[in-house]
Amino acid sequence: MQLSDDRTQATLAINKTLTAAEIENLIRELATLRSQMTPEVTTAPKDGNGDGVPVMRQDNPTLAIQYPLEEAYVTVYLRSLGLGWTAWRLHPDVQRGLAGFFNSRLPQAAPTPAKPIPFR
Predict the structure, then answer these.
(1) Distance in angstroms (rounded) separating the CA atoms of residues 30 and 32
(2) Chain centroid to CA 99: how far?
(3) Using CA of residue 38, residue 33, residue 95, residue 62, what is the dihedral sign?
(4) What's the chain's average pLDDT?
(5) What Rg do the C-alpha atoms of the chain give, in angstroms?
(6) What is the pLDDT of residues 10-53, one digit of tens each?
(7) Cα 100 to chain center, whole Å?
């Protein structure tokens, strides 16, 4: 893989049979390459009006959360059937924002909150 000098194009040469693990590695390498390219990925996914970019959608993804006591950040790992595991390191302000959003979405008679999903 090679990125052009102006970072708008990449040259790829793939002509072989790949295992699932090799495909996962290729996806990670392509994602890293894409992160270096211009234009940047849009700041919003495709909305109901069709504006934005298409997204891969998966219902009820597997997730794990890592929350070391000595750090304010929490890392959320989401498992995609096509992309593998992705990790999102969340700043405390983002954690508060997500907590407020999800708490506001719960029905008033919501069951007792579940324990956090531990990191595996």
Answers:
(1) 5
(2) 18
(3) positive
(4) 87
(5) 19
(6) 999 999 999 999 999 999 999 999 999 999 988 878 776 777 77
(7) 21
